[in-house]
Amino acid sequence: MKKAASRGRPTLAERADRYTLYQKAVQAPDPEVKFMQRTYRRLRGRAPTSFREDFCGTAHLATHWVKGGAERTAIGVDISAEPLDWGKEHVLGIAAPSVQRRMRLVQADVLSAEVPRVDVIGAFNYSYCCFKERSVLLRYFRAAHAGLKKDGLFMCDLFGGTEAIATQADERQCDGFRYVWDQAQYNPITHEAMNHIHFRFRDGSSLERAFTYDWRLWSIPEVRELLLEAGFRSTEVWWDPIDEEHYRKTEVEEQQATWLVYLVGVK
């Protein structure tokens, strides 16, 4: 919802595009692509070439993957037409023809999408947390396992910590706007959470609830157990040390107010 500051000429919120703001405030495709590349090469001894971005939205990450090398291909899968259409115009549409030829965007449910197998499947920005039931998340992980080549890897991220379940809002200044992460509701019985993203501007206008996420906050052991049950041979946890450049592979950490991890499923 766009909230105007005053009548007259359009406000900054009224002129803003929520997907552009999301890319600037939330997405960081370069470190994610580097992590996937490093991890795959370490485990498989070669560079991965094919990637599938599940819950891809505007396919910003998948497009960045393909831009990294002439041998790379990518498939973006999302159930919603609006972000895919935006990505076709504003992300893939402005990429070089050689990149466009090696990209495929598919509107489909990630639980049943019929696309070629790939080296790496990624589900980032906690997108799979939209699956609130254990049986449904297991079904997704099984679908991801089936969608990988025999030496493929599945990678996703997860967040948690004592502040992750608090009803609070955090603000961060970005270029030309403020990004607000609003943890509006949390149910400790079901671990369901309702979170919103707002964008606020210097003229007093705002985009309230530009994005809303109705999630279940899964735990690290739950996700790892489900990956193994889905058929993955092993899993890895990579912890964000905050004060260091790279995530570190780990099995023991102290609780923090907030933490971020990458989880890897090894086929």
What would your notes on this structure say?
- With 267 residues, the chain is α/β, with parallel strands linked by helices.
- The protein contains eight helices and 13 strands.
- The chain has helices at 12-15, 18-25, 29-44, 60-67, 81-90, 97-101, 134-146, 220-229; strands spanning 2-3, 50-54, 73-78, 103-107, 118-123, 148-160, 168-174, 177-187, 192-200, 206-216, 234-239, 248-249, 259-266.
- Helix 4 links the parallel strand 2 and strand 3.
- The longest helix has 16 residues, at 29-44.
Short account of what is shown:
The chain has 267 residues and is α/β, with parallel strands linked by helices. It contains eight helices and 13 strands.
CATH superfamily caption of the largest domain: Vaccinia Virus protein VP39
Taken together, the total number of domains comes to 2
What is the CATH domain class of the largest domain? Alpha Beta
Strand content: 25-35%
Largest sheet: 8 strands, mixed
- The string of secondary-structure elements, in order, is EHHHEHEHHEEHEEEEEHEEE
Please give the CATH architecture of the largest domain.
3-Layer(aba) Sandwich
Strand order of the largest sheet: 4-3-2-5-6-13-11-12
| Helix/strand class | alpha/beta
Topology of this protein?
Elements: E1 2-3, H1 12-15, H2 18-25, H3 29-44, E2 50-54, H4 60-67, E3 73-78, H5 81-90, H6 97-101, E4 103-107, E5 118-123, H7 134-146, E6 148-160, E7 168-174, E8 177-187, E9 192-200, E10 206-216, H8 220-229, E11 234-239, E12 248-249, E13 259-266
Parallel strand pairs: 2-3, 2-5, 3-4, 5-6
Antiparallel strand pairs: 1-10, 6-13, 7-8, 8-9, 9-10, 11-12, 11-13
Helix pairs in contact: 3-4
